[in-house]
Structures are given as C-alpha cells and as structure tokens.
C-alpha cells in the first residue's frame, strides 16, 4: 500500500509550503474572477476549489489530512455539491476497504509475520551478493502487495544495512558501494511496484476503482481477482528485469562471495519458533486474501470461475437477486479486522490479535486524502467541468494511436509523480483523462488504468515515494546515483506498462 511523502510530513513548513499557502488562494481567485474564461459560474467554482486544494496538496501548505477536508467545506459553500453528498465521499465502500486492509496490515506487523516471511524469502534465494539483492526485491514486492510500502521498506532496511555492513567489513567502507546501492534501490523500487498487483496494494488503485465504478457503471466491474490477474505479471516481470538492470547494467555487483549470509541466518534464528499469535494472524490474513480473490466470478475468456458471493446470496435469500454488491471486499476487510479484535493472541496474557492502541497509528491522513479526492471528483462531475476539459483535450487523444496514447500517458504520469503525490495526482487527473477518452471515442480504461499504475512508478528522487526517501535516509545512496539509475528504471517501466497493458491487460479485462 502506498501513501506518498506528503502523508508523512508533520514538521515545520518549508519555503514551498509557505509559498503554496498564498499561491493556492491566488489561483482560486483568478479562476473565479478572471473575465473571458470558457467556464460557467459553477465550473469556475469547482475549478477554483480544485486549484486551491491541489496547490496545497503539492506544496504541503497545510497537513495533508487537513487540506483534504477543504473540499467538504468549500464545495457546499459555493453551491457545487450539497453537504450530504460531500460528506459521503469521505466514507464510501472503497475507503472502508482500505481502512480494513490497514487494520489487518497492522496486525501482521504487530506480530512480526511480515518479518518472518521476508527473511524466509531472502534466505531461500541464496547468499551470493547478486542473489541477496534478488531476495530483498522478491520479499519487498511480495509484502507490499498487501502491506504499506513504507512499512515494508522500514522493516527491511535494518536487515539490509546489517548485510551491507557485513560485506563492508571485508571490503572497507566505500561510500559508493554498488552492492549497497543495488540492494537498497532494489528494495525501494520493488516496494513501490509490488503495490500495483492488488487493489489494496496502493492508494491510486483505490482512486481508480472508485472513479471507474462511479462514472462508468455501464462497463463491467473489475474484481479483485481480475485486477491481480491483470497486473501481477507486471510485478513478476519487473523483479527479474529490475534485478538485472541494477546488478549488471547500472550498478556492477560481483557474482561471488557469501555476502551477509551469517547476518540473515542470525536474524532468522533470533525469530525463534512461530508463536501462536503469528500463526493465528497469518491464518486470518490468508483467509482474508482468499476471500477477496474468490468473492466474485472470474471470467477468463469463455470460461467463468464462480465466486462465493452468489452462493452466499442463494443461502441468505433463495430466489432473490441481491445484486453483485451485497457483500463487497470492504465487508470482508472490516469483518476480518473485527475478527482480529476477537481472536486471542494465545500468549496467556489475555491479549487479542488487535487492540485499539494498535490501530490508533492508522494513517488517517491517507484515508482523508482519498475522501478529499473523491469529493473533488464529484464536484467535477456535478459542475460538468470534467466534460468541458475532456472536450478540450479529447481531440488530441483521437489523433494518437492506442499504443502511442498509452505510452504518452504512462510517461507523463511517471515523471510527473517524481515531484507530486501519486494519490493526489491520480485524484485530480483521472476524471480528466476519463472524460477526454470518452470525448475521443476511446474506452476510458485505456487512459485511466495505465495512468494509475504509472503513478506508483517514480524512482529518480527521494521525494518521489516514501520507499525512495527511506533508503536515501540511510546515507548509502548518493542522490546523483539515485537520479541516474531511477531515470533508467523509469523508462524501462514506461515501456513495460505500455506493453503489458496492450498485450495482456486489455485481453484480461475485455477492453477493445
């Protein structure tokens, strides 16, 4: 799961934040009062609120959660949305899904299930330098499919640093060590890319699913299993390709030596035997993932694998069609999170798998960020601003061929999110991309889906993603090397996302 760096910041405002505090209202005022703009009064107000909120998001003029509440106040005050509709945007089904997933992830982290899994993967791959890099990338990608990518990186970083120091004990203390940089960058990059594999892996995925369901109910819904079937191949392909690029192209890592094998073995021994709480938490999370994947029918070509949702409906209300949303993935997530509060940890202390102090550290600002974006998008739709912008840029979409269009959208989103929040950027741009595609006579998924995935693929700068910032803070990755390597990896993923979407995802999701 991903929340960009803005969601982490709580320190004193910098120069950009102080400037943004004034630039946001200035832009809003210009949109409201500049004569001659091709906007009606309602569209002016929606555009003004969007400009204000986007500026404050991007510059962190206010804490991200507080900025995210601004649309709930201004859109009703300006007559764009009624207050009830604005408030509803902050607690919809998909935000409940994220809330439940966050709680479950905190349970996994509380009992160290993720650490045992990570060390098991790293230890199984091998102890040679290149293999250790691969092991860290595999573990990071696997964990961040289900857990917050920042937490994954923070958990893996001390293990990685210990391995690096074990190697440096033999080689001397080079400040530009290829093995150290490959391991740390591989860890960060895999944490970011791993999140695209599941609907709960990163916030932009939820942004897409919410906008797609709200704006295009006539199109087939995308189930949890379909999403994984479509995008897990990107992760599976990226890990070996990224590993080869890091260890043999951009950074030359030697092939021989038992780098850090003793450190990994010692870390695994320190874990001891699996405690009852670990086993129970792993079981709860495994059942949750299975319920998510198998809830809805999974159509694959002419074959449909039935899900348990319809069977449950037949048992609860025989002969009554309850529709596809009687029990959603959010129902599963919240239900299993509640189970964690009921199941004893099994350590004799009376503790449960989850308690309220454990979930108080939930990233509430990320949930508010999602809600604020949904509220703005509802304002776009209510005012007709999305249609207007789509009419302006739609013709340019029609000129480009499908592959070139996807390539341009992916490249633009990847490099834009080097300096902007991936979640905030998708919140603002997805309604525009969708409307432009509709105006051009193109399936809106052709622009929305690749843009969503590309938003999680920014690797050049420490500020681009929290995993980048975490590994940069170790002091072992010079910023000029991060930028150079990240640029190459960005370009690689732009091509990979474009090809996988065109050759695989379109077939899986039935996109013409």
Automatic annotation (TrEMBL):
Higher taxonomy: Bacteria, Pseudomonadati, Planctomycetota, Planctomycetia, Planctomycetia incertae sedis
CDD domains cross-referenced by the UniProt entry: SLC13_permease
Membrane disposition: Multi-pass membrane protein
One MF annotation (Gene Ontology) recorded for this entry: succinate transmembrane transporter activity
Superkingdom assignment: Bacteria
UniProt source species: Engelhardtia mirabilis
Annotated Pfam families: Na_sulph_symp
Principal subcellular localization: membrane
InterPro entries: Na/sul_symport_CS, SLC13A/DASS
The protein, known as: Sodium-dependent dicarboxylate transporter SdcS
Subcellular location: Membrane
Record keywords, A-Z: Membrane, Transmembrane, Transmembrane helix, Transport
Single GO cellular component term: plasma membrane
Record has Transmembrane as a keyword: yes
Transmembrane segments: 20-39, 51-75, 87-106, 145-167, 179-204, 224-246, 282-306, 326-346, 358-380, 392-416, 485-504
Originating gene: sdcS_3
